[in-house]
Amino acid sequence: MNPVPDIFRILPEVILTLTGVAVMLIDASLPPGWARRPLGWVAALGTTLALWASLWQLSLPVGTAFYSTVESSPFTVFFHVLVCGIVLVSLLLSLDTLPEDSHHQGEFYALIVFGAVGMCLLTAAVELLVVFIALEISSIATYILAGYRKETGRGPEAAIKYFLLGSFATAFLLYGVALIFGATGTTQIYEVARRAASAENHSLLLAALALMLVGILFKVSAAPFHVWTPDVYEGAPSPVVALMSTAPKAATFALLLRVTYEMLPSLRPIWLPLLWVVAVLSMTVGNLAALRQENVKRMLAYSSIAHAGYLLAAFAGLGSSGIAAASFYTAAYAAMNVGIFAVITVASGYEEKLPFVQDFRGLIYRSPLLGSLLIFFLVSLVGIPFTGGFFGKFYSFSAAVGGGAVWLAIIGLLNSGLAAAYYLRLALAAAQHPARNGDDAVVYTPQVGVAVGAALLLAVAATLVLGIVPNEVLRAAEAGAHTLQAPPVPAGSSLITNTLPPTP
After folding, report:
1. How far apart are the C-alpha atoms of 424 and 305, rounded to whole Å?
2. 387-398 pLDDT tens trace
3. Domain boundaries, the chain
4. d(C-alpha 437, C-alpha 449), whole Å
5. pLDDT at residue 288, rounded to an integer
């Protein structure tokens, strides 16, 4: 069998990189007074091509490239498609919500695409140093995007907090990588898995695991590493929050799956109880804090912390069932969360005229489409049947029960009931009759453009598909789970392109 060219293993990343460079070059060549909005369509086209390239990689045999540093497999394809889909929706959302006179629009679109390069590379990396580089590419882009609204004061505050705390978390991760190398003599994930079971310095491995978990759990905003989340979500533009609350988390959860199930499965008795504790803390702290919030973006920030806990519950599953459940929940959460932030972005406008829950009162009367979609996505976040949120929680808690963590599943169900209180509070406000003249209420009638309409349609379709016919996505998640548990690359294989054993 002819070896697969290395470049094919990273084709989506190459397309995204070329797209970002093209956007920057075109932006620099345009006169200052010209509109930059078409650059968003260029970015969206490049992202669509990257998504197609990701699906095309399914035709390749599972294997690694570039000296066993990156991999293409059903697992990487699943998360590549997820990340590219989220980025595409975020770009479409930004096209109609960024003001025409907003500063550095071309750089805004380019940063989103460059961030996607890091996220995709993070899911494909099987070398810890490449993991670090990919994480930095993704993080730097989101740090800058978080402070895009420089004129508000909260934008720079959000960016600085995110950058400082994110730098500390990255330092923990990098120190953990150094300890992994000290304990095993390698940073290649398959080689670490092979040597970890017989490593002489077991305490060094445990310290490395702890430090890496701190860095990873910060990126997914799991408690107790969540303190940055509400302030950053509140200060960043809503289209950016739609992106950063879903795509970087999806890529980082893919990394967490690699670290636990693929690199250090021998330490399962250690990392599993730790993730149980983090899951319970995230669910409980996130939901209790969200109950007290009047600001919609802060409420959804704490909600995202709780959902990180629901997803971590799937890690209690045995083998491929836990991996598949976590992957499916990541997709379901991304679809409904990017959808609700899209609705809030359009309903509030770029200036965020509707920051509080009561400001959404009567939305369904002012804009029946947006009001109905807001209620739909809130219902999905609750976990009502026929939505993606229902099957996401069902598979996650089922995996926990199958792994023997019955109490973890019970705590998750109780927290889901608790979360319904604040989700339904926002839904009730949107369904209430508009305030009479003279009442202290914000009156703002949003407009839905073509690009935003396409973004909302994609989010709704994904949420419905995952809630009504989830079998195809679940099969893709299971195929990725089997790939993730494939044996390490044999030591005598070619350094240029190693082909792993076929997927079961």
Report:
1. 18
2. 999 999 999 999
3. 6-489
4. 28
5. 96
